[in-house]
Amino acid sequence: MTARPEVTHPPRSRLGRGGPFPWLLPVGLTIALFYLIPILDALRLAFTDASLLGREARFSLDAFGAMLGSPALGTVLRNTGVYVVASVTGQMALGLVIALLVVRGERHRLPGMVAVRTIVLAAWVIPGIANGVLWQMLFSEAPFGAVNSTLRLIGLPPVAWLSDPGMAMVSVILATVWQGTAYSMILLYAALRTIDETLYEAAAVDAATPLERFWFITLPELRSALLVNAILVMVMTLNTFDVVIALTGGGPGRATEVLALHTYTTVFRGFDLAGGSVLAILLLMISMLAAIGIAAALPRGEGR
């Protein structure tokens, strides 16, 4: 008997086999609908003289010159840098401290750890406007201001939390850190729970101090989580303006006017849609560059 020749079939394409493309198509369309199209529309408006006053928009480059050449932009960018760096650092540091305390408490089976997580999360679910109003009442320089009243009770002079330019920025940062700490705490708490306990047991055998265990085990194991957390918190803080507008309105003067608030006021108070689009694109570029810079430090591969 002669062997039957083996019949070979040409390889089918990935699309023919039902590869990932049909599944990725809805995701791509959703991203284009909710993210790409608004960005392209803002880019289109930036090259016009569009206004909320209803006149017909025409092609123009005046918005770029007016916004990027504005004397106020330097102050706004400086305020934004101080606000974002201080707020992100505070949120991550305080979030890590709370996460470490909760994890340590759970390991020692201490009661009340669920209550601690709940209290921290309660601040996160408060709307930004309500958070700003709450802290405005706390920092109020009137007799009913809770913080200054407490300072008077312990014999300290009251502080101009909202009328002094330097302290106004401190007030905005404190309000932002108080609300945003819960997000960092949740992410870092989950990352801490994944660290292998045998690493700490081996360190204990080697008589490592708590500070050494934190520096040589906890921080290296949390590197990826810390970087991802920094990206997410940084982007959210860059786009925050509701707390600022409710607490200080950007004042006194422009002492607390950040880029997101400057964009909002340009559109809805100055009715300059084209100028607001230019500022929105600038904010997007700053967010992307900062995120890319932080993401470049992320570990690549399992061996690193």
Can you describe this structure?
- The protein is an all-alpha fold and 304 residues long.
- The chain has one domain (59-295): MetI-like (MetI-like fold, Orthogonal Bundle).
- 68% of the residues lie in helices and 0% in strands.
- It has 13 helices and no strands.
- It is globular.
- It starts with 20 loop residues before the first helix and ends in a 9-residue tail after the last helix.
- The mean pLDDT is 85.
Radius of gyration computed on alpha carbons:
26 Å
Task: Give the oligomeric state.
Answer: single chain
Termini separation: 59 Å
Order of helices and strands: HHHHHHHHHHHHH
Level of helix content? 55-70%
CATH class division? Mainly Alpha
CATH homologous superfamily identity: MetI-like
Q: In DSSP terms, counting alpha (H) and pi (I) runs of 4 or more, how many helices? A: 13
Shape: globular
Mean pLDDT: 85
Instruction: Assign the CATH architecture.
Output: Orthogonal Bundle
- How big a fraction of the residues is strand? under 5%
Query: How many domain modules?
Result: 1
**CATH structural fold name:** MetI-like fold
Number of strands: 0
Unreliable spans: none
Helix-strand category: mainly alpha
User: Biggest sheet, in brief?
Assistant: none
Topology:
Elements: H1 21-46, H2 62-68, H3 71-107, H4 113-124, H5 128-139, H6 146-153, H7 165-193, H8 197-205, H9 210-221, H10 223-238, H11 242-247, H12 259-268, H13 273-295
